[in-house]
Amino acid sequence: MEISGDRTALVLVDIQNDFLTDGGKYFVMIEELMKKNNVNANLETLLKAAKEHGYPVFMSPHYFFPHDHKGKTHLSPMEDLALHGGVVARASPLHTDDLPGSGADIPDRFKSYMEDENTTVVSRHVTYAPTSDLAYLLRRRKIETVIMAGPVANLCLEDHMRNLIRDGFETVMVRDAVAAAANEEGSGLDAAMINWRFMAGAVWTTEETVRRMAEAAKATA
After folding, report:
1. Spacing of C-alpha 133 from chain mean position
2. Minimal CA–CA distance to 95: which of 86, 104, 108?
3. What pTM value is reported for the model?
4. Rounded CA separation 105/161 (Å)
5. What are phi and psi for residue 196, nearest 5 degrees?
6. pLDDT tens digits, 161-210
7. Residue 217: in which H helix or E strand, if any?
8. How far is residue 180's CA from residue 149's CA, in Å, rounded to a whole number?
9. Burial class, 9, CB count within 10 angstroms (exposed 0-12 / middle 13-18 / buried 19+)
10. What does 194-210 look like in DSSP terms, one character per residue?
11. How far apart are CA 137 and CA 127, in angstroms?
């Protein structure tokens, strides 16, 4: 698989404190893999490469608002756990007073890369799929290929991948910039890797991804 320097974007899912930082409400379920895969450092490497070579960045956040507790049906086991456990909880959809430094906020180490006009934070997703404007905003930038990473490989990230494939995008999954929880059936990360090898256009390491990003940007220039 090849990427184009002017038709490719970096898409990050759930780049938020509750997933990525010590003490985060979801981090406790993925801490071992976060550290084993050096996920935060690899995410930062991807962001640095995107900024250096001019690739747009899109981030899909996961938020829960007070009205989400009024639902009459269950979301799914893991989403119910996150909702009732206060993961990425927000006080209101109308203001961000409680956001800075909260579990729903972006980690400080990434803010310098993401607070610019070439980074788009799309509307929130509910459950795992991108129930948001992600595909629309990618189309506005004439993006055809997405490089994807995030801490919840087999749930939110994979469902974003599946939906973007359905919408006609090519996908590159970065295998060491991800983590996942496990249950009695096995590892969520193993499940993701098996599916990605069947479904994604490519599954690369961070090192290979940034090398290809640099090569594609040079070729486009």
Report:
1. 14
2. 104
3. 0.95
4. 23
5. -65, -35
6. 999 999 999 999 999 999 999 999 999 999 999 999 999 999 999 999 99
7. helix 206-220
8. 12
9. buried
10. HHHHHHSSEEE-HHHHH
11. 20
